[in-house]
Amino acid sequence: MSPGQGNYMSVDTRELLAKLQRDVEDEFAIYTARGASLDFVQQLVARELCVEMKIVSPTIGAALVELFTRGGWDVSFGTNAVEEQFNHIWLHRAAGLGTSEFLANPHIWTGSVPE
User: Fold this and answer.
1) Count of C-beta atoms within a 10 Å radius of residue 33
2) pLDDT mean by block of 10 residues, the chain; 115 residues
3) How many CB atoms lie within 10 A of CB 25?
4) Residues 56-90, buried b or exposed e (16+ Cβ, 10 A)?
5) SS3 (DSSP) at 101
6) What distance in Å separates the CA atoms of residue 55 and residue 19, rounded to the nearest whole number?
7) What is the distance between the alpha carbons of residues 79 and 5, in angstroms, rounded to a whole number?
8) Residue 20, CB half-sphere, CA atoms under 13 Å: how many?
């Protein structure tokens, strides 16, 4: 398997991403973990983009806020959504990530075959 194929996340990493989600049923969390973490990062980027764009053009900044809000992202700073998510993440800061298949089997990324 080449580095561009397959999945190199360890089971522990997937379980941690599942735990970092809020407002999801435990039985479904493992299936939505990566998507939820990407959504959170996108939300952070969207918030920062709105802040910076409001400096450049208040009109465009307001339009971005409206656009992202329609898309379901909370980009307003009047809510505690991001702070609450960071607090939730902080509770799991000591969790181990295990060993990924990618690091445990260097032949996967070097292209060499183990002897």
Assistant:
1) 21
2) 52 80 84 88 89 94 92 77 84 71 55 56
3) 8
4) eeeeebeebbeebeeeebbbeeeeebeeebeeeee
5) helix
6) 36
7) 40
8) 26
